[in-house]
Description:
By secondary structure, this protein is α/β, with parallel strands linked by helices.
Amino acid sequence: MFARLMGLKTISPDKLHQLVQNPEPVTIFDVNSRGSWMEAHVPGARNLDPVGYQNSDLPQDKNAVLVFYCSNPMCRKAPNAARRAKKLGYSNVHVMSAGISGWLAAKLPTESGE
């Protein structure tokens, strides 16, 4: 919801799940709390501080596919982090607006722990 209002591309949990099956690399960022990330996250997702992240936390390739997500459609952390990546010059930035709650509701696989 907020992602579209900010002019960001959105991606559904099912589409993201399909994307990670493809050989094209995708970098997924979970901007939820560390505790939430430890409990359940999209396979391969990296936990990222949505406010304090550094340029070095993102891939060097400005055309890399980046997907940000937080807890649910009402959460603004992922859209804000994605908008910041766009301002840093990344061109292929997406937000999974459904968040981890939408991913879990779709019964897609998760990882937990480190």
